[in-house]
Design goal:
The complex is a heterodimer of chains A (about 350) and B (about 270).
Chain A lengths: L1 H25 L3 E7 L6 H8 L2 H4 L2 E7 L3 H9 L5 E5 L2 H8 L3 E6 L2 E2 L7 E5 H5 L12 E4 L5 H13 L7 E4 L3 H9 L5 E4 L1 H9 L3 E6 L6 E2 L1 E6 H6 L1 H22 L6 H12 L8 H10 L10 E2 H13 L9 H4 L7 E2 L4
Parallel strand pairs in A: 1-2, 7-8, 7-9, 13-14
Antiparallel strand pairs in A: 3-12, 4-12, 5-11, 6-9, 6-10
Chain B lengths: L26 H18 L11 H13 L2 H33 L1 H14 L8 H8 L3 H25 L3 H9 L4 H35 L8 H10 L3 H29 L5
Classes of the chains: A alpha/beta (about 350), B mainly alpha (about 270).
C-alpha cells in the first residue's frame, strides 16, 4: 500500500511537472510594453488587455501610462516601450525623421456622421458674430502648443475656408485646461475640443459649438506606431500585436459606435474602460463622459495614408518640420489596411 | 609623562598657507572649450546619436538661422521686457515689504508666516488661475516673474537686516543718532551685501521662470522659443534657446557683480 501510494504520488508529480513544461513551452509569453493615455480614444488598448486578446497572441503586455502623447514617442524612440498611440504632430514628425519610428496602423479618425472634435467659439466672440468656422478668420485660436494637432486643425479650417494662417492669431497655452479657461473667460475666441468636454460646455452655455471637424473632410487623428527596430527585427511580434489590437477595435466598434443597440454590452464596456479612464471619479459620474468621448475608430486599424501625407506636407510647408522624408518613410506596411494611398 | 632625553630642537617647516583661492582666469574657458570639443567630436563620430543630443555645431546653426531670420532680437526683446519689468517690480515691492518686516515687529509677525506659506507654491501650478486673473497678455507673464522674485527678495532683505551687527546699532544709539539715521546710515548699508546676493538669486529665478511665464499664449520670447523647440522635438533649437538663457544669466551676473563693486565700495 505504502509503496503504491508513493509511486502514485510521484507519477502525479511527474505528470504535473510535464504538463507545466508543455504549457510553458506552448504559452511562452513575450514581454512587451505599450504606452497608453487615459483617454476613451485609447479604449481598444484597454479592451484587448482586459479581455486577454494579447495573451491569446502570446504577448505579455505591460501598460505604461503617460500624461501626454509626445513622451510616448520619445520612449519608443529610446527603446523603453514597444507600441504607442499618438496624434501626428510636428514633434512626432521630427522624431520620426531621426529614423526611429514607424506608423503601423490608424486609430481615431474624423468621419462624417460621427462626433469627433468640436469647433467652439467663446460666448463673447459668438455674440460678436463668429457663428461658423468660416468666420474664425481674423480671430484668436487657443491651441496647446505650436506643432500640435490643434495647430494642424486650425490649418485645416484655414485651408477649407480659404484664409491664411497669418489671418488668425494662435495662442499656445500648453494645457487643454488652460485652453478651456481662456475660451470660457472670453480671452481667446475659438478652440477645437474633444466631444466629451465640448458638449457639456455648450450645454452649460460656457461656450458655443459652431461646427465639427468631421464636416471639413477626412482627418486621421491618431495612429498606432512602434519602433523601426520592431518592424525590421520582430515582424511576427508586431503582427501578433496588431491582430490582438484589431480584436479590441472590433469589440469597441460593435458596442461604442452604436451605444443604444445593446445597453447591457455598452454598460459592461464602459465599466471596463472606467478602470483606466476617469478612474478617480465614481462610475455614475464617469460613464457619461466615457460614452460621449467614444470617437470613431477605423475598422481593422486601417490607415488613411493620403491624409498622413497631407499632414506631413502641411507641417513641412509651415516650416515646423524640416525633413527630406516622405510619407512612405513614416509608414511600415503589411500590418493593417492602407487606404487612400497616393499614386 | 614618559621620561627620556629632551628632544633636540628641530626646524619646523611652515605649515600655513593654502585655503586661499586665487584667480586663474584661463581655466574656466579651457574647461568650456574642451567639453564642447569632446561633445562635437562625439557627435561627429556618431558616438553620441543625434537623437540623444545634437552637436554643438547644429545648435550654433540653429542660432545662426534664428539671427538671420531676424527673430532673435524679437524673442530677446520680448523676454527682456518681461524680465526687467517683472524683476524690477518684484524687487521694489520685495524690498519695501522686507524692510518693514525687518524693522517693525508687527509687520514681521504678519509677513514672515505669509511668505513661508506662499513662497513654496510653484507658480507654474497657478498658471490656469493667472490666466483668469491677469489674462493671457503681458500682465500674466510679468506677474509670474513678479511673484517668483518678490518672496525671495523679502526673505533676503529681512535676513540681511537681521544680520546687521547689533553692536554697531547700539553704538549709533549711544552716540545719540536718531532712529531714521540709524536705519539710513547703519542698518541699510549693513544689510546691503545680503540684499545684493539676494539679487543674484532672484535674477536667476526670474530667468528660470521666463519659460514658465511664456507658457501662456506667448508668440515671441526666448521661453516661447524653447517651448516650441521642445514641442517640435527640434533639439538643436532647444539647445540654442537654452544657450541664450545661459548667456542671459551670465550677463545679469556680471551686471550684479558691477553693482556690488560700486555699491559696496565703502567696504574697501
Amino acid at each position: 500500500m505504502q509503496v503504491s501510494s508513493r509511486i502514485r504520488r510521484s507519477v502525479i508529480c511527474a505528470a504535473i511537472v510535464a504538463a507545466g513544461a508543455v504549457s510553458g513551452g506552448a504559452w511562452a509569453q513575450e514581454k512587451i510594453t505599450v504606452g497608453a493615455l487615459r483617454f476613451t480614444s485609447h479604449a481598444p488598448t484597454f479592451i484587448a488587455y482586459e479581455r486577454g486578446y494579447f495573451k491569446q497572441e502570446g504577448l505579455d503586455v505591460e501598460l505604461k501610462f503617460f500624461q501626454a502623447a509626445q513622451p510616448v514617442a520619445v520612449a519608443i524612440a529610446s527603446g523603453d516601450i514597444d507600441f504607442g498611440i499618438t496624434a501626428l504632430t510636428g514633434g512626432y514628425f521630427n522624431l520620426a525623421d531621426k529614423g526611429a519610428l514607424k506608423i503601423v496602423g490608424g486609430l481615431f479618425a474624423e468621419k462624417k456622421g460621427y462626433k469627433g472634435m468640436a469647433i467652439m467659439a467663446s460666448n463673447k466672440a459668438y455674440a460678436a458674430g463668429m457663428t461658423s468656422p468660416a468666420k474664425i478668420k481674423g480671430h484668436s485660436v487657443a491651441i496647446t502648443q505650436v506643432g500640435s494637432s490643434f495647430h494642424f486643425m486650425t490649418g485645416m479650417i484655414a485651408a477649407k475656408y480659404g484664409f491664411a494662417m497669418s489671418d488668425v492669431s494662435l495662442k499656445p497655452l500648453q494645457k487643454v485646461g488652460s485652453m478651456i479657461g481662456a475660451v470660457k473667460s472670453g480671452q481667446v475666441d475659438a478652440m477645437m475640443m474633444v466631444p466629451h468636454v465640448a458638449i457639456p460646455l455648450d450645454k452649460a452655455k460656457a461656450a458655443k459649438i459652431i461646427g465639427w471637424m468631421s464636416d471639413l473632410g477626412p482627418y486621421q487623428v491618431t495612429t498606432i506606431f512602434t519602433s523601426t527596430r520592431n518592424t525590421a527585427e520582430r515582424q511576427v511580434q508586431v503582427k501578433r500585436f496588431m491582430r490582438a489590437y484589431k480584436k479590441g477595435i472590433a469589440d469597441y466598434r460593435a458596442v461604442m459606435l452604436n451605444q443604444k443597440k445593446d445597453p447591457a454590452a455598452t454598460e459592461a464596456m464602459v465599466k471596463l474602460i472606467h478602470k483606466y479612464v476617469y478612474a478617480d471619479r465614481p462610475y455614475e459620474k464617469a460613464a457619461p463622459g466615457i460614452k460621449a468621448g467614444a470617437v470613431y475608430i477605423n475598422e481593422g486599424a486601417a490607415l488613411d495614408v493620403g491624409n498622413v501625407k497631407k499632414q506631413l506636407d502641411w507641417f513641412k510647408a509651415q516650416g515646423l518640420v524640416k525633413t527630406k522624408m516622405t510619407y512612405k518613410d513614416l509608414i511600415a506596411t503589411g500590418y493593417a489596411d492602407m487606404f487612400d494611398v497616393p499614386k | 609623562m614618559p621620561e627620556g632625553p629632551v628632544p633636540q630642537a628641530r626646524s619646523v617647516a611652515f605649515r600655513g598657507g593654502g585655503f586661499a583661492p586665487r584667480p586663474v582666469g584661463i581655466v574656466g574657458p579651457i574647461v568650456f572649450v574642451t567639453l564642447l570639443l569632446l561633445w562635437e567630436l562625439g557627435s561627429r563620430t556618431g558616438w553620441i546619436s543625434a537623437l540623444i543630443l545634437p552637436a554643438p555645431s547644429a545648435a550654433l546653426g540653429a542660432l545662426e538661422d534664428l539671427y538671420r531670420s531676424g527673430l532673435l532680437f524679437k524673442h530677446l526683446g520680448a523676454s527682456l521686457e518681461r524680465l526687467v519689468l517683472g524683476w524690477c517690480l518684484g524687487t521694489l515691492a520685495g524690498i519695501g515689504v522686507g524692510i518693514s518686516a525687518g524693522l517693525f515687529s508687527l509687520a514681521r509677525a504678519g509677513v514672515v508666516p505669509l511668505v513661508s506659506a506662499i513662497f513654496p507654491i510653484p507658480k507654474i501650478a497657478l498658471l490656469p488661475l493667472f490666466i483668469i486673473w491677469f489674462g493671457i497678455g503681458e500682465a500674466s507673464k510679468v506677474a509670474t516673474i513678479f511673484f517668483g522674485v518678490f518672496f525671495p527678495t523679502v526673505i533676503a532683505v529681512t535676513g540681511g537686516i537681521d544680520n546687521v551687527d547689533r553692536g554697531l546699532v547700539r553704538m549709533g544709539q549711544s552716540f545719540g543718532l536718531r532712529w531714521s539715521s540709524v536705519v539710513r546710515k547703519i542698518i541699510l548699508p549693513g544689510a546691503l551685501p545680503a540684499i545684493l546676493s539676494g539679487f543674484r538669486i532672484t535674477a536667476s529665478i526670474a530667468i528660470i521662470l521666463l519659460v514658465a511665464a511664456e507658457m501662456i499664449g506667448a508668440e515671441f520670447g526666448v521661453g516661447a522659443y524653447i517651448l516650441m523647440a521642445g514641442n517640435l522635438m527640434a533639439t538643436d533649437q532647444l539647445i540654442a534657446g537654452v544657450a541664450i538663457l545661459s548667456a542671459l544669466g551670465l550677463g545679469v551676473g556680471w551686471l550684479i557683480g558691477r553693482a556690488e563693486r560700486f555699491l559696496l565700495r565703502w567696504r574697501g
